[in-house]
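Task: sequence design from structure.
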């Protein structure tokens, strides 16, 4: 009875004082920031916790076995100092951040990749720009370029496809019509200066390129007309000869159209583009033979190089998982003096299998033919390239 009395007294004391052991108290949960889905800009965006900014993260892994030029000798396989094949792997990272503002969407985009080719590694910043309404500033595809290929184009291109630092503004007029005015880095389009039988680099940069484009995008496809101004700035020496002539104003004009069609399991499209350049050969194609110039120093003056370029392609969605692409281009060069004249044409074909969405594989074959003028002293030739690619985008 005495023990019961003591226990009762302790219980009453606890009830009176509000005392309890810490183990009996409930534990307050830690605050949790849950990831919220952001569907304002499409699939796979989510809000960065604590902000109103939506972010999308993506990536790509690509590996390919590249058989280098095995065409007419002297080719990569005949030169013991050249790689007959390249085994290349590449990893991409994509970051896309968007925030709604009263003046339109504020966007920051980054696309970068690391490449390992045989035993050589490199890092590339492909795109990095800020976009606010119609304003875009940073590194992105050139506003002159329209058709940039259907195939892998793993080793050569028939078209112009250049990423460049730029400041651009696009005006939208409704119904898919738009106009763009841009300033782009001159150095990205500078090819070379012909001098005393060889080619040399430009002098320093002075003036950015100016680009203007008018375009339309509708259900049937898209079209664009475009123009560019490009400063040619010679200042170099080669074989004891110095080129320090006055700079010239180069220019380029072009037009392109892409039309979609049905009738196949997964549809298709056809594209065609033409461009004429005068002192701005880099706008004709980014797949030129190394003989290309923007101008030639003839000993007393700078003569600009003129080119005509036509290229295009066809994409065929043969089944829901198999696609084939065929494309090519023809290019003529009037190189300031006859010694730098040549014609070039190329073709690419591949077959792509996509057994799972975002996962593709397939082979590609590419051909390029170059015919030099007799006065150049160079021999005509052709090149062949083969590539087997496996790629996963996520």
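Answer:
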């Amino acid at each position: 009875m005495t023990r019961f009395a003591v226990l009762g007294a302790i219980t009453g004391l606890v009830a009176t004082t509000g005392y309890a052991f810490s183990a009996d108290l409930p534990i307050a949960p830690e605050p949790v920031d849950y990831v919220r889905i952001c569907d304002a800009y499409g699939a796979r965006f989510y809000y960065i916790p604590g902000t109103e900014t939506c972010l999308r993260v993506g990536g790509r892994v690509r590996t390919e076995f590249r058989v280098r030029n095995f065409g007419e000798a002297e080719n990569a396989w005949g030169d013991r100092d050249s790689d007959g094949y390249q085994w290349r792997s590449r990893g991409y990272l994509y970051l896309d951040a968007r925030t709604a503002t009263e003046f339109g969407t504020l966007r920051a985009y980054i696309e970068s990749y690391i490449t390992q080719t045989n035993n050589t590694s490199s890092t590339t910043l492909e795109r990095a720009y800020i976009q606010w309404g119609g304003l875009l500033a940073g590194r992105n595809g050139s506003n002159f370029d329209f058709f940039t290929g259907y195939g892998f184009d793993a080793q050569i291109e028939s078209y112009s496809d250049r990423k460049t630092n730029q400041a651009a503004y696009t005006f939208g007029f409704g119904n898919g019509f738009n106009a763009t005015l841009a300033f782009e880095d001159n150095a990205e389009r500078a090819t070379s200066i012909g001098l005393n039988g060889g080619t040399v680099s430009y002098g320093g940069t002075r003036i950015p390129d100016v680009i203007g484009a008018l375009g339309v995008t509708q259900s049937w496809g898209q079209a664009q007309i475009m123009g560019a101004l490009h400063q040619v700035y010679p200042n170099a020496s080669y074989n004891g000869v110095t080129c320090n002539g006055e700079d010239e104003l180069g220019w380029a004009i072009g037009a392109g159209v892409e039309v979609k069609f049905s009738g196949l399991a997964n549809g298709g499209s056809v594209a065609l583009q033409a461009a004429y350049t005068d002192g701005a050969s880099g706008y004709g194609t980014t797949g030129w033979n190394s003989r290309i110039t923007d101008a030639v120093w003839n000993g007393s003056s700078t003569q600009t190089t003129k080119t005509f370029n036509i290229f295009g392609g066809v994409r065929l969605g043969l089944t829901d998982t198999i696609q084939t692409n065929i494309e090519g281009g023809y290019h003529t060069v009037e190189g300031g003096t006859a010694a730098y004249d040549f014609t070039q044409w190329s073709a690419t074909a591949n077959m792509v299998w996509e057994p799972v969405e975002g996962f593709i594989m397939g082979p590609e074959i590419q051909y390029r033919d170059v015919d030099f003028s007799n006065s150049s002293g160079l021999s005509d030739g052709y090149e062949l390239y083969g590539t087997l690619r496996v790629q996963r985008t996520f």
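The first helix runs from residue 2 to 17.
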